[in-house]
Amino acid sequence: MNYFLEIFLGGLTRGSIYALIALGYTMVYGIIELINFAHGEIYMIGAFTALIVASVLTLLGFNTLSVFILALVLAVIYSCCYAFTMEKIAYKPLRQAPRLSALISAIGMSLFLQNYVLLAQTSDFLPFPRLIPDFDFMEPYAHIITTQEAVILITTAIFMTILTIFIKFTRMGKAMRATSQDKVMAALTGIDVNRVISFTFIVGAAAAAVGGVLIASHIGMINFYIGFIAGIKAFVAAVLGGIGSIPGAVLGSFVLGWTESFCTGYVSSDYEDVFAFLFLVLILIFRPAGILGRSESNKV
Amino acid sequence: MNLFPELRKSFIASLWFMFLTFPIMVIRVNTIENIVEWRWMNLVFVGIGSFFLSWLWRYLLSRKEMGVNKKTDDQDRTSLVSRLMKNKQLIIPAAALLAIFTIIFPHIFSTYQTSIMITALIYVMLGLGLNIVVGLAGLLDLGYVAFYAVGAYAYGLLNYHFGLGFWTALPVGAALGALFGILLGFPVLRLRGDYLAIVTLGFGEIIRLILENWNEFSFGPSGIANIPRPSFFGMDLSIQWATVYIYYIVIGICCITIVIVGRLQDSRIGRAWIALREDEIACQAMGIDKARTKLNAFALGATWAGMAGVVFAAKTTFINPASFTIWESIIILCIVVLGGMGSVVGVVSGALVLILLPEYLRAFSEYRLLIFGAILIFMMVFRPGGIVSDVRRVYRFESSAMDDKPQEYS
Amino acid sequence: MKAVLEVKGLSKDFGGLRALNGLDLDVGEGEIVALIGPNGAGKTTFFNCITGMYEPTEGDIFISPTGNGNVKERLQGLKPNQVTAKGLARTFQNIRLFQNMTVLENVMIGRHCRTKAGIARAIFRFASQRREEREIVKKSFEIVEKLGLKQYVNEFAKNLPYGAQRRLEIARAMATQPFLLLLDEPAAGMNPHETDELDELIRKIRKDEGISILLIEHDMKLVMSLSDRIYVLDYGQKIAQGTPKEIKNNPVVIKAYLGEEIDA
Q1: What per-residue string of b and e applies to C178-216 under the rule 16 or more CB within 10 Å gives b?
Q2: Intra-chain end-to-end CA distance of chain C, in Å
Q3: CA-CA distance, B237 to C111, in Å (whole number)?
Q4: How far is A111 from chain B (nearest CA, A)?
Q5: Would you call C118 an interface residue with chain B, using a CB distance cutoff of 8 Å?
Q6: Domain residue ranges of chain C, discontinuous segments joined by +
Q7: Per residue in C130-153, pLDDT tens?
Q8: What are the chain C neighbours of A300 within 8 Å (beta carbons)?
Q9: Domains with residue ranges and CATH for chain B
Q10: What is the CA radius of gyration of chain B?
């Protein structure tokens, strides 16, 4: 039973990270119908910024808590700035272009950012400092859930709650929802669509950066390529849940996290990804628009 | 243009990029010895570079917008290549020159160059195959590399177990490719757009992961070595001559592919694909069987990937799953989109540019992928339709009833 | 007169909403029948049910193609492409042309279900394929000419003026050799002059090809001048049927169109 619980919580942790990244995919897709291939790189840049900031601050003699907070905050700020710039350069000029062109541009951006970090930093795996300490009161439960996993779960939950409130009740949130329904109509009612789009990228980037810092300190290693792999997984999660839908992305991420973790725990870790993808294919065959996605009715 | 505001904008952009790249460009942490390296010079480079690049960027953007306003001018430019193609006086000598160049290529260049050219030509095949699926039928396939892997492993394994030669393996690889195309096609018939993209991506990854992990079947990550090159009427050739031989084989297959894809494009099936891409509902209402048309496209596209896989295995004599990652699918997709979707000439030039460019950029070896990424963005922003835009056949009115060959121009 | 299309008790539910309720309708051989009604009355839903795009909740649809004796065939359960192959062709209210294909190619697509060259034949260009291809081009040119689109023949569909796009929709449908043409608001967005031309064109199609026509239309002048019979739909229900004259004076119809005041 403990083994089951451990795997269950492990899957939940994985799922939370996927969810933080998948949010960016699903929100951007909801608004401009673009698979932002470079979103994973934002997460990677977040992790790198945190690593750099944490190392510098540790050398300067800051204590653990302030290092953690400052690293997290700066990672979020930088990720947001990167996402903002990325949108302005690679996507904004392509609003009217065919969707495939925007996708290729996103792929180009992904390639560019990966190699930028590779060249400016290193291609080796870098050890990531343990920013989250082990709390003593967690000791009795350590065989089921580690402190880090608990922190990841709680942070994700808080972030999701804030985001939900934000989208439901604020002016910007309403503007975002309106824009995702109908860009032209939203513009006609006086919403600055370009601002909303920039903002969507920024929110997505913030979530991804939080995810990046959390997972990096959980796993303890980063390199320039982590963004791509995590990006693909998160994208799968977003599609699984029904792309464009925020609760869908979260649910899809948990489902994906559990699938992987149970397959690793009970079958074989070699085929973890195979099961994840097979599961995706199966779900989409029976529900072509994802778990929570509304199937597009053929309006004739 | 007023100078001062432009200067100011560039200055701001330069400041912004200096801020943006600061942690990653300037600071490098050595985590083993715990030292921080500060590289202030990089900041200067970024500042100066982004100052001028942002100027250039804005200039090109404003030019592009002007081009949109002057639509006629724009259209003239997009059809430049197509207009060149319709010019008979120009096209025949040009084609002859090209043919001669292609034929003597392996004799005037080194084996290394020939080998690079073979790789590029394999991508021409892959691009043309994917063009059927993405360019004509409009089905976004991100797992195309799976069929390429199927072809390569078909040759590798059949040769290993049964000693099958290249020429037997070629049709087998093609047939297996088609079979897998249909296998993938069936479950995804109902899916559209991006859902299709992610499922095909998943399919590609599944194939690769199986090849990587199923050691008994595919020899895992270490792959299959010592795959024979094609033999010339039973003779084994030296590496140099074998390369030349493969070069001619690939040229032959490419020519056949170009002819076939060209014919398909202007046939009943090809028109059905394009109609499917343009409007699925209207396409069905016009009496086209959607499922069958999609399966046709998947199967035919995969056939060429299967063949390309066999050729690839024969060329490198060694295959392992690392050659069939998702990046491979992405590069092939880039070839199709960058070249110009649906256009054969476009795809061929796209493949040559995209594969040869990084090879010859080796001078900047480390930077080539960075440059490659930048070029992709740049091309899409300033020329989203690709190098050569799609040209549709023109039919003559009166002569049509007679047996007159319709002419092609734009 | 023989009925080429016979619909009995057709209903269609969307969730809890009944869009069509027990509709009976028939179209006779060589007849022009109009289906009118306020927006949202279920007219297009009716077309979608007949052409296989929606599956009806209840009811029967029978066809009896022209020149096929009195054989009746059921139409339910067929896919849209199979319905078209049976000889029912439709146009769309919101124009759905193949934008990046030329006018002629759009029409050539219509020939798809009447021809059969497959992949192998397309690749090897056998004599039979070349003959078939010539046949397609020839037939398509004839149709293009008949519909007055000759001047646009090699233009992309997206570059055509609005009226021409509507005519191209009809041309494309005609190319499938239907015995019954379903036109969904063919005159929408046309100026009076173009509408008159359309009136003439539809009559010509019936006369020359012997095609029966069922059309949805809001332009009452066109409907009254063109149709032999009219069905009026409101809230998914048939509220009246008859000749143009009968419909014009039917108080129920006037009420549905103009509201309650008439009653008082």
Answers
A1: bbbbbbbbbbbebeeebbebbbebbeebbeebebbbbbb
A2: 40
A3: 52
A4: 5
A5: yes
A6: 1-87+178-264, 97-175
A7: 888 888 988 899 999 888 888 888
A8: 44, 47-48, 53, 92-93
A9: 3-69 (no CATH), 114-382 (1.10.3470)
A10: 24
What percent of the residues of chain C are helix, what percent strand, and what percent coil, each to the nearest 5? Answer: 45, 25, 35
List chain A residues with CB under 8 Å of C93. 300
Q: Domain range holding A9?
A: 2-224
Domains of chain A: total = 1
Q: A47 and A75 in contact (C-beta within 8 Å)?
A: yes
C73-74 and C58-63: which strand pairing? antiparallel
A289 domain residue, yes or no:
no
> Do the chains contact at B191 and A52, CB–CB below 8 Å?
no
- ipTM of predicted assembly, 2 dp: 0.88
Please name the amino acid found at residue B148.
Y
Test A285 with B190 for CB contact under 8 angstroms.
Answer: yes
pLDDT, tens digit, 9 for 90 and up, residues C42-65 = 888 999 999 988 888 988 998 888
The conformation of residue C52, written as its DSSP 8-state character, comes to T
In the structure encoding, which two tokens stand for residue A291, read together? Answer: 């778990």
How close C92 comes to chain A (CA, Å)? 7
Does residue A249 sit within a domain?
Answer: no
Nearest-angstrom CA–CA distance, A126 and A54: 13
- pTM to 2 decimals? 0.84
The CATH fold of domain C1-87+178-264: Rossmann fold (3.40.50)
How far apart are the C-alpha atoms of C172 and C162, rounded to whole Å? Answer: 15
| Contact A63/C at CB under 8 A | no
B397 shares contact with chain C (CB less than 8 Å) = yes
Pure H helices in A60-146: 64-86, 99-120
Q: What is the dihedral of CA A51, A53, A54, A56, to 10 degrees?
A: 120
Question: Would you say the C-alpha torsion A18, A24, A27, A28 has a positive or negative sign?
Answer: negative
pLDDT digits (tens, 9 = 90+) for A148-190: 888 888 888 998 899 889 888 999 989 988 888 888 888 898 8
CA distance B271 to B54: 43
A202 falls within a domain: yes
Q: Please tell me whether residue C19 adopts helix, strand or coil conformation.
A: strand
Q: How many residues does chain A have?
A: 300
| Most confident among B215-224, B271-280, B393-402 (mean pLDDT) | B271-280
Residue A288 lies in a domain: no
CA separation for the pair B139, B291 (Å, rounded): 12
Residues of chain A contacting B188 with CB distance shorter than 8 Å? 284-285
Residue A198 burial (CB count, 10 A): 17
- Span B186-201, pLDDT tens digits: 888 878 777 788 888 8
Nearest CA in chain A to B134: A100
> Which residues on B lie below 8 Å from A236 (Cβ)?
198, 202
pLDDT at B408: 41
